[in-house]
Amino acid sequence: MAYRPSWQGHLKLSLxxxxxxxxxxxxxxxxxxxxxxxxxxxxxxxxxxxxxxxGPIERSSLVKGYEVxxxxxxxxxxxxxxxxxxxxxxxxDIERFVAGDEIDRLYWDNPYYLAPDGKLAQEAFGVIRTAxxxxxxxxxGRIVMATRERILALEPRGKGILAxxxxxxxxxxxxxxxxxxxxxxxxxxxxIAIAEKIIEQQEGPFDPSQFVDRYExxxxxxxxxxxxxxxxxxxxxPENTNxxxxxxxxxxxxxxxxxxxxxxxxxxxxNDKAPAASAKPAAKAAPAKAASAKAAPAKAEPAKPRARxxx
Length: 311
Known about the structure:
Helices cover 27% and strands 24% of the residues. The chain has 8 helices and 14 strands.
């Protein structure tokens, strides 16, 4: 299947330039899409562009307008908007290299694949990609997309380059705007130790194939039932998650995880009935250290999933 690029132009590292194409790295989420229907006629509703004074109007005759005051607009045609040209409109000029962990995850936006555009571009593209890979750093450039200039973060991925648009500082809310009301009181050490044990029991590799949109699957099942003429059963209400006794909830969670882990201990002696949580007494002695040791690599991770030297 041939994919249509989202953007075409050049990649530039100092005086080395090559034609490239940018492709979206993700698919539009979800298979279930709804239309607005008039239940009285079963007709799909059409959205008609309408002028409040003159009535319906052809969309092709419309122009964009910027509101400078209430009801007053500066009109701009597509040609006028396209006349605003920056170098980044058609060139990704690499300006700087930074360590990946210097970019806060909050700033990473949408992923794209960057590939050479045509056979003649492959040699120069390969030189730039390989040099980037050897540097072990993230390249930063600029690109104009959808009438906006965005920062673009580039890193090697396989035989090509993974590109992420980076949000500007003005787009990101400061954490204190949301977190200011959170209490500064220290959490109970005993509760933290149990929570760490629960986390330890739930550790595992990241496998995106295991994460399925269960809500969409339920919608598909509902649609199938309706197709068969069945009246779908009402889904039960979710259980109340309000925790009255936090320590009791943590201990019950730990016991529940121990029971789930029991089948893995079949090979042990029959008289070995110690629960999984007590099999590691050393972990109780210094739970905070164990937790911080595990947390350290996570802090060193880049702002979005990165595959260094994958190609």
